[in-house]
Amino acid sequence: MTPEDDRCIADIFEQAVDLPPAERGDFVERACGDDATVRREVEALLALDAEAEAGALGVPERVGPYRLAGKLGEGGMSEVFLGLRDDGEFVRRVAVKLIRKEFLTAETMRRFETERQILASLDHPSIARLLDAGRTADGMPYFVMEYIEGEPIDLYCDRHRLTVAERLEIFRQVCLAVHFAHQNLVVHRDIKPGNILVTEAGQPKLLDFGIAKLLNPDLMIRGSEPTMSWGRLLTPEYASPEQLLGKPVTSASDVYALGVLLFKLLTGADPYRLRERPAPELERSILAAEPDTPSGFVRRLVDAGPEEARELAMERGTRPHALVRAFAGDLDAITAKALRKEPQHRYVSAEQMAEDLRRHLAGGPVSAPYRTTSLPTRGWLLAGAALTLLLLAAAGLLARQKARLEERDQARTQQIVASLERVFEEMPLGPHSQDLVDHASRRFQQDLAGIPDTQAGLMMSLGRVYFRMGHLEEAASSFQGALATRQRLFGVEHEAVAESLAELAVVEATQGDLQGAEDLHARALAIRRKIHPGDNFAVTESLVGLGRVFLAKGHAAIAEPLLQEAFVTRQRLLGEGDVRVAEPLTDLGHAVGLLGSPDAADFLFMRAAKIQRRAAGDETWEVAINLVYRAASRVDQGEREKGREILLEASRIERQLCGEASPDLAGSLLNFAAAAQQGTPWADPVPHLRPAASDCRTPPLAAPHLPYLLQALGTGLNELGYAAEAEPLLEQAGEIRWPATPPPPADNSSAAGPCVPDGGIAETLESHCCSGVILGGTTVCRNPAEWGNSWRTCRHVCGSRLVNGCVPPGGVDDILSLTNCCNGASVNGSVRCLNPADHGTTWRTCFHTCA
Amino acid sequence: MATRTLTRLLSAWSQGDGEALDRLAPLVYGKLRQLASCYLRRERPGHVLETGALVNEAFLRLFSQHRVSWKNRSHFFAIAALMMRRVLIEHARRRQHAGRVPCLPLEAAAEVGLAEASDVLALDEALRQLSARHPQAGKIVELRFFGGLNESEISEVLGISVPTVKRRWRFARAWLHRYLAGPKSS
Fold first, then answer.
1. What is the ipTM of this complex?
2. How much is the pTM?
3. Are the C-beta atoms of residues A632 and A387 closer than 8 Å to each other?
């Protein structure tokens, strides 16, 4: 056959199929003339086409006693038709569901049968009822359901201009229907407006159990049931975090979808769109971002589009401000509870949700916890502050360490050793410090091998000096040496061992290895808990250390109880006025702030500052730090002017303490810059940043903090448009932090190099970020896969806080493929891990995959 | 890579910048392969492979849905269809070497009664033959089978009207039926 023939065949075929079948024969005959090959080919193709068309439309005219009249809808592998049953007296209308012929496989039959069984078990006024089932003449299974003449719930509510109370009443009925299904061990898994029709009489009806699942206890335990049918795409707006992660889906997932639906009925929007920041990828938001609150949404809408807000309110028979008032409080709390990321924190049942709504309608108290305001959308200032705080742990530890050593007074030798330790620890740093300490380190290792206890103690001191000089590698190896010696001498369960672990943890945290730091702190904590039953200060130190690591990792929910315990214990041990009580209090402020209570955080910061003021006077560094945090939390709350005032006060103190070019001052100023970036026209901070920046570039000033500071300054300058000045600072920070940046591990599946950033999953979910450092909420990343530009800021992406984490080595894709994967922390000796797929809250053991 | 960059590349490609495709393709390919292998590991008899779902998934992962215009979205799916085809063929070849059944049937193929083309390699060969004679018909099948594009999306990508897409699709479908069922001669 020639190419010419091929073209001819295609042409004639395409013209022929446009004609009514009866006319095709003549047309083909005419068009092909005497070319028998072409004609034979076209006729064969037309015949095959007719067959295929019939197959595609191949629906029987009758199914059982029902005459099929038109398609109502199709989904996945089945179709729903309107069925008519003529009884002679009246015509009964039903919905007939059929498997599409081409999908008639054992698997689809099984699913179809499951759906039929599910429907048969659910006899409820708000659930479309199963009427009949059977097989067609040619053996296709079908079932017959009540035909619902109605419209999707959201459209119904809007078209009828239902008030908020009326909407809630209908929604409550949906909750009860869903609860009824759950009681019958059925999870719907696809609750959305399109699957809830409301009849003209106002009766909601839950439809389409096509991907519903029978809750089989065995399957739940094995967790192996594929929860997301590839047979259809999830409706992403209504998918719960666990559904997106492919985790077992339970009734809690339906509760989540009900939360989304409630939000939609109240506001006409879904909880993750129309936020202040640029619309993030929906899936990422569902997994990571805090949902909006109905009142917050309307309030913003009033600002952004008053016209739209008026319309929204009108559809609900009221005015915008009344709508905000109606939502604030109970309804915000109820939606928030249903939309919790962790299934176990949602309503235990849809019925409870309905009950809370009933109480709200009746004016009684609801069970959902209130939040004072909506969650801050930008936790980044606080998150950045948390990391800074972690870095400062070093200084505090050193001071307390000395105090503890002074208390030891057992023998003269120890007095001498203690004195020697102090010599090192208090040694002013100068050009020859390094030589001196290196020399001492060698001497101690040679000369004191016979008294390993003393040797270890001195190595700890040297480690602290190294740390102070910013030589983190040397500090770590000194602490490790001491740790090994002490373990050999005392076994595992000894305070000296715990102490070495704790200090090593601080070094690792400073080096940016949060996971390592977490493990070490957790080990120290386990030891200390065991050897110091009851209230003990060392235990609280470990609690604070571990809490800070979790804060830095963004796991505020885990940090909070640890810090709470540290605070309460210290208060009992030392009394409220002791300055050491202020320390966990500040951290607790962070945790609470990150968890969405900025006002409580502010209160805690203030309380901490008050203690510090009383103990050490107004102008101390700790006071200044607490002020900076308060300012950050105010700015996050949108109270920029207040934040500015507090920051000014902080930088005044810092300036007094440290002088004009102090790095800490630069830190506060950076926060200015960040706040300015958010739109408040404050004084240009750059003149201040510049000298501070140049000063910072000469080590060993503030050595352990240096890379973070450089990063912060560089980012600040960059954001303010001084890219040229930012570049060298950022480069230098990168060099200090990653002295010999190893080539990124080869990603065998993508041209873009992988980069699992420090902050973990939040960044990983967004494919482009980044091997970054977070400070002041900004992440600067150096992504080798980036085309063209090497450094970039991605605050929105990386700076967002995320209450889950635990990224496996391969990043988020591993999470999706290995449901059990984890990056575990050692707690109480056994490997337990925080699994992101469990949404960050479940501690569970998973030896298999972690090992 | 930033969504912004991806989106820009996508627009550049839809406006005829061939270089943009060179830069996009490896990314899309990588993501698809990741997703596909994840799915194919779990395959079970009786399943069909829903390429459209996979491509959609890849899209969701690479882009912020709301910032990509519908046109660009179609173009993404067009690239993805091409890549999906490569991913599946590669997978099928590997399996064939291992002496196993090459691959899952494609949902889209099953839908038009081409379930007998359960062998991706056979389908690929048929598609190659079709494309050699009727390039646009071949493209339509690729977009539909491997990318899950619908008629209006195909019309957008190929710059032809929807009725033309429909007619040409019917031709391609009949042609494939004939090729796969009948003698393999011309």
1. 0.77
2. 0.38
3. no
